[in-house]
Amino acid sequence: MTTHSSRLDGMMFSDPPRTEAKRYPTAMAHFQARTTAGPGRVVVTLTGECDLEGRDELTAMLLTAVDSAPVVVVDLAGVTFIDSSGIHGLVTAHRAAQDAGRRLHVTNAGGTVATVLEITGVAGLLGHPSAVVPGTAAGEDTAHA
Prior knowledge:
By secondary structure, the chain is of the alpha/beta class. Helix content is about 30%, strand content about 30%. The strands form two sheets. Strands 3-4-5-6 form a four-stranded mixed sheet. Strands 1-2 form a two-stranded antiparallel sheet.
């Protein structure tokens, strides 16, 4: 390791050692979306991280679901992280649902995901994030009224 020194008014300064950025696999954080159609509704089950990397996939999946059923339930039980890109996808789909006379709700958010939804106001807009909806990952497998 080499250090570079310079003198300023009799004081010695050394450059910090240089390190290389390490890249770690992100397979655990990969975003996935799955849809399940039921009578009068579609459940979109999300897993992983809803961030900039998965923004386009998230938005496209939600808009397709809105076009295919009067009620869309977005199950967030498997979501470990959500940022403004994920929030944007949810709000974009919500607005599309409203414009079409349809509804979009989120459910089963936990931990920091629920906190982000609460802080941003999306929890109030799209339903209480800790609510368990039948037919989703955390709910029983019965028809939703």
